[in-house]
Amino acid sequence: MDRTIDHVAFGGMELYELRTAANEVGLTPTYGGEHSTGTTHMAVVPFPDGSYLELIAPTLGTDAEDAGFWPTHLAADAGPAGWCLEVPDVAASAKAAIDAGVPVDGPHEAARERPDGRLVEWDMCFEGDDLRLPFTIHDRTPRDYRVPRTSHNTAVRGLRTVVVATRDREATASLFARRHRYPSPVDINGPFTNFAVLPGTPLALCEPGDGELDARIDEVGEGPCAFLIGVTDIDRARQSLSLGPEIRFSDRRMAWFDHDLFDRRLGVVELH
C-alpha cells in the first residue's frame, strides 16, 4: 500500500496554453519533451517534496483522439486526467490489482526524450476500466532524470490531495478499500458538495451536487476532477502564487488558483 502521490496529470489541447496559465499563477513549468508514442508532450511543475504536476497535451499535428494518454480528457480540455503512485515493482503491483479483482493494462515500458537529449525511461501500469484508480510507476532511469530539481518555496510543499468525482461514493470507497486498503470516507466541509476524505490517504471523494460535475462525468467519466497542493500557510503562499478566495477544508483553509483554466480544478490546501 502506497499513500504518497508521485505525480498528477493535467491535460488540455495546447501545451503552450497550459504552461502560460501555470506561469501566470506563479507555478514554473519545465518542458519535458515528447513521450515515446510521439502523440503527446509534457511539461513538469516540480515541488520540494519530489512530487510534480504534469501538464500534458497532444503534439503538433496529432488529433487529441489519437493521443496515447487520456485522449478524451485532452480533447475536452478537461484538466485533471490521472494520478500516479510510485511503487517498487510495477509487475508485483499489477498482480496485487488482479488478485483484488481489478483488471490491468500493463505493465508497459515507457519513455520520453528531454530537450537536452537525455532519455527518461520507466515502467507503468494502468488499473481498472475507469480512471478513479491511480496508475503506478517505477523508474528504470534515475528519478531525477524524470523530475527536475526545484528551488524551495518556503510555503509550498507538494501534492497532497486528489479529488475523485464519482456517482457512487460508497462503491468507489469500497473499490479503494479492496485494492489499496484505504479506510472509510469521512464527511467534511470542502470545495464540493457530498465531499469526504479518506484519512491518512491522498484521496478525497465527491458526488455530483451541481450541473458542473454531472456534465464532467458525462463527458470524461468518473475520475480526478481536482488536485490540491499542500502549503504551510495560505497567506505566505499568496506572496508568490495567484490565489482566489479562501474556502474551508474541514478546519483548514484552501483556495483555487486564480485562473479560469484552474478554477475548481487546481488549488492549494493548508497542511495540518
UniProtKB/TrEMBL annotation:
It holds the Pfam family Glyoxalase_3. InterPro entries: Glyas_Bleomycin-R_OHBP_Dase, Glyoxalase-like_dom. It comes from the Archaea. Residues 5-178 form the Glyoxalase-like domain. PANTHER family: BLL2707 PROTEIN (PTHR40265), GLYOXALASE-LIKE DOMAIN-CONTAINING PROTEIN (PTHR40265:SF1). This is Glyoxalase-like domain-containing protein. It comes from Haloferax profundi. The lineage of its organism: Archaea, Methanobacteriati, Methanobacteriota, Stenosarchaea group, Halobacteria.
